[in-house]
């Protein structure tokens, strides 16, 4: 990999995360080419590569170049589209003793080999289970209720039936024995005490890592969680896991699932593909992070493939222990509604004239949804939840503030139009339920 042409240091600022923000070029040989097209920069022999431009305060500024084109008359220089991102650099928690693999008792395995998942027949659960199995690195067990009618057809998946609704958890503990990581993926309509019962059983079975049914919002954003009725869930699972003192929790901040949300009707990302209508929230220009189902699955599979602990004092590689009792931040795209609309028009061959476009206040939509939910109308929960995410500076764009772990986990840069095609198909065919 060559060196980037950009020579001036870059402070970590929100503006650097913008996909249409190209860095300044200070090399005099190409300085005359600026200002350049937004979203493009002049680089030297870097097409399709990732370049680390700077590292500061535990963050890494990355640029991935693609769609490069040669500049006539200037040898070895190209203009390239940019994907600019800030990624967190994992570090050990300050003032805590660092556990090392070399100090563990005989029989310790420094890899996750056995994983259990609850909800493997559901939307995100099936994706994660499939991603785990595709690596060939894990023995994956799906724990289902004895009376479950969900069909789980994944080759290599071990299915164990164990009740996790009653007070007798002996079968559940037995099913979890020997498991190193438990992944809980359940619908928001699941009984409120189910997660607590699963956590208790995991503690009895000495399960060290738990993904406690959090695949979405940034849990560090108190305002967003409060306004979305998620604070109680967040705090209760943290407290329950801490109370048992056996497991570490890992939250996955991925925000709303892209294909599910884009194709899921007007109360989600504002699109109704069956009626070709779009509701823009305010001006439709608030960016949020969003992740595809496959990206979420890859993230979990990649995370669990890390070594559990550093081998010794000299091992500075990223390990699973770095993420214990923390949040993993990932993202497929950082988009506004208008960005989504441009992708939709590209893949459908339509123009603005083909769509009925209206505008509504995101805050007013949230207030209306909140009022209905408080009256007991749970059907309004989706409208309330999604509208809140599109508040200006409302926390939907966590990448600008916290960075992501995409690079650490080796996650790919995805094709927006391909993901949009899937969403459009699902929306047109009515494959997605309109409510949570």
UniProtKB/TrEMBL annotation:
<dbReference type="InterPro" id="IPR008030">
    <property type="entry name" value="NmrA-like"/>
</dbReference>
<dbReference type="GO" id="GO:0016491">
    <property type="term" value="F:oxidoreductase activity"/>
</dbReference>
<dbReference type="InterPro" id="IPR051609">
    <property type="entry name" value="NmrA/Isoflavone_reductase-like"/>
</dbReference>
<protein>
    <recommendedName>
        <fullName>NmrA-like domain-containing protein</fullName>
    </recommendedName>
</protein>
<feature type="domain" description="NmrA-like">
    <location>
        <begin position="113"/>
        <end position="222"/>
    </location>
</feature>
<dbReference type="Pfam" id="PF05368">
    <property type="entry name" value="NmrA"/>
</dbReference>
<keyword id="KW-0560">Oxidoreductase</keyword>
<keyword id="KW-0521">NADP</keyword>
<dbReference type="InterPro" id="IPR036291">
    <property type="entry name" value="NAD(P)-bd_dom_sf"/>
</dbReference>
């Amino acid at each position: 990999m060559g060196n980037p042409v950009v020579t001036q240091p870059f402070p970590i600022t929100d503006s650097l995360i913008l996909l249409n923000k190209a860095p300044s070029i200070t090399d005099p040989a190409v300085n005359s080419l600026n200002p350049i097209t937004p979203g493009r920069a002049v680089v030297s022999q870097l097409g399709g590569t990732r370049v680390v431009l700077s590292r500061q305060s535990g963050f890494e500024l990355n640029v991935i170049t693609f769609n490069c084109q040669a500049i006539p008359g200037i040898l070895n220089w190209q203009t390239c589209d940019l994907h600019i991102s800030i990624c967190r650099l994992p570090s050990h928690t300050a003032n805590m003793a660092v556990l090392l693999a070399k100090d563990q008792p005989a029989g310790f395995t420094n890899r996750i080999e056995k994983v259990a998942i609850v909800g493997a027949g559901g939307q995100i659960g099936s994706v994660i289970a499939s991603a785990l199995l595709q690596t060939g690195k894990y023995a994956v067990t799906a724990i289902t209720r004895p009376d479950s009618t969900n069909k789980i057809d994944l080759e290599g998946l071990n299915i164990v039936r164990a009740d996790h609704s009653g007070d007798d958890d002996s079968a559940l503990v037995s099913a979890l024995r020997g498991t190193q990581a438990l992944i809980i993926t359940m619908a928001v309509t699941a009984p409120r005490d189910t997660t607590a019962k699963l956590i208790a059983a995991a503690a009895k079975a000495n399960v060290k890592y738990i993904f406690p049914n959090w695949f979405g919002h940034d849990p560090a954003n108190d305002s967003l969680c409060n306004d979305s009725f998620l604070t109680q869930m967040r705090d209760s699972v943290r407290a329950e896991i801490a109370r048992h003192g056996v497991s570490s929790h890992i939250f996955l901040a991925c925000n709303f699932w892209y294909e599910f949300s884009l194709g899921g009707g007007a109360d989600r990302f504002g699109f109704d593909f069956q009626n070709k209508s779009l509701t823009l929230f305010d001006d439709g220009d608030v960016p949020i992070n969003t992740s595809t189902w496959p990206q979420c699955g890859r993230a979990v599979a990649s995370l669990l493939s890390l070594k559990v602990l550093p081998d010794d004092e000299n091992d500075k590689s990223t390990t699973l222990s770095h993420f214990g009792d923390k949040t993993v931040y990932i993202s497929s795209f950082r988009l506004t509604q208008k960005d989504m609309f441009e992708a939709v028009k590209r893949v459908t061959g339509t123009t603005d004239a083909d769509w009925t476009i209206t505008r509504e206040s995101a805050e007013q939509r949230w207030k209306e949804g909140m009022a209905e939910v408080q009256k007991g109308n749970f059907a309004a929960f989706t409208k309330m939840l999604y509208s809140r995410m599109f508040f200006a500076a409302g926390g939907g764009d966590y990448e600008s503030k916290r960075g992501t772990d995409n690079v650490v986990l080796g996650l790919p840069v995805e094709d927006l139009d391909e993901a949009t095609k899937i969403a459009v198909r699902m929306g047109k065919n009515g494959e997605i339920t309109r409510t949570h």
